[in-house]
What we know:
Layout (H helix, E strand, L loop, with lengths): L2 H16 L3 E5 L5 H7 L8 E6 L3 H6 L5 H7 L4 H15 L3 E7 L13 E8 L2 E8 L4 H19 L3
Parallel strand pairs: 1-2, 1-3
Antiparallel strand pairs: 3-4, 4-5
Amino acid sequence: xxxxxxxxxxxxxxxxEHGITVATGxxxxxxxxxxxxxxxxxxxxxxxxxxVAYQNEVKSAVLGVSSELLAEVGSVDGRVAEAMAAGVRTLxxxxxxxxxxxxxxxxxxxxxxxxxxxxGIATAAGSFASSYDFQGNRAExxxxxxxxxxxxxxxxLPS
Length: 159
């Protein structure tokens, strides 16, 4: 079992124990977070759904990220990650929304370096984002972003 799957199993177990539902809004990970959660038996009791919002138009039209914010800061920003998490939480009717946005490379994007990633978490209490600077190739950065999202999800779940 991979580390990603161990983290997902812990998140699914914790969410199920507390009756908490989760939804994902993913850009850089393009569905990896939802997929690794869904690989876990029992995920259907906690995973509401997810949106792959790779383009800004989808972030805005589907997840409700302000087009003004996207124009101001670009797609790779903590405030965008927070808005994506809040948007998917609302859209899917989940207790927790988790999001990912970042630069997998090979070129910088929106003024952000390759490896810069933001993970957003949204709950009824509000939203926050964590920033990361990962190293590696495109696949490695995406995998690290998925791992970070699962780690933040675990932290957001009650003990």
